[in-house]
């Protein structure tokens, strides 16, 4: 089966001037990323701040141009479009298919536009509808996300955070997308509102056959919504696995570190857990040789300092991990001796 989206050897390097003498420094925000997103699945991208999650989402949506590598989109069997090589003009029709939802709806919604115009804007930009049809599509998109019709003439500040996020989702939905990239879409919301938005996203996925790339630093949320998870560290994908497998039996030491940060009830266990996390995240412009995680890894050996491990299937898959010792090291899962996470049901 061909994936809806395939990312191959994607890299993104940022160059900038720094310091008193304006030296140019380069940051490899993404290094050789390989990923597939199957039609209808929710793939979560997780990792600490600065690991490249947003940059990856933006390169896929071509809000940023990748430095090298490819992003192939297959909307139907036998029809694959190489998004990364298209010009801005060639890309325009495909921008309807791949839409982003952002973390902070207040800063992504123009405060001077009324709800009707906010949701109509993508249709106008893409010249897809006008007059009565435009109105019907806007009202229908707002209906789908639970925003009442009497809200059409109001401004974003008149709404709560959750309602603003619903308007943001309506802006994505109005173009009938195939793939929605949700970048920390519920991170700014209270837990009870998070649950409502996550449930809305689930319903929309089923009703409209959507596929999600769900970027989040919150593993509790990811556990609730994702079918599969890709873990990023310092611009690399270090593990991909079905969600349940990843939480039960992580295969990369960094995934274990992330799982250890999940809230647990027993404070003595909490103290023990943090001992496992050593060191600071290295600076992207000064990436360690060998395995990018070796400076913080409790299993690191000489081989890890010398050779960069490839992302490879572990025991035949479906988990992939970039660790020389993934088959032999004993890592703790999220449920080993902790209460279940994910309280959104
Ligand atoms: N436009 C840019 N110019 C220079 N560096 C950038 C730019 N955008 C991102 N970066 C750098 O690239 C790295 C990855 O950033 P990115 O925002 O993708 O990470 P992230 O995992 O999404 O983090 P967060 O959760 O904090 O948003 C960071 O070191 C960041 O400072």
TrEMBL record:
Biological-process GO terms, alphabetical: peptide transport; transmembrane transport
Domain annotation ABC transporter: ranges: 5-259
Keywords carried by this UniProt record: ATP-binding, Nucleotide-binding, Transport
Gene3D superfamilies reported for this sequence: P-loop containing nucleotide triphosphate hydrolases
UniProt membrane topology term: Peripheral membrane protein
InterPro entries: AAA+_ATPase (IPR003593), ABC_transp_ATP-bind (IPR050319), ABC_transporter-like_ATP-bd (IPR003439), ABC_transporter-like_CS (IPR017871), Oligopep_ABC_C (IPR013563), P-loop_NTPase (IPR027417)
Chain segments annotated as coiled-coil in the UniProt record: none
Highest rank taxon of the organism: Bacteria
Gene Ontology MF, one: ATP hydrolysis activity
Location(s) in or outside the cell: Cell inner membrane
GO cellular component: plasma membrane
Record carries keyword Transmembrane: no
NCBIfam families: oligo_HPY
Family of the protein in this entry: Belongs to the ABC transporter superfamily.
Record's protein name: ABC transporter ATP-binding protein
Naturally occurring in which organism (per UniProt): Devosia pacifica
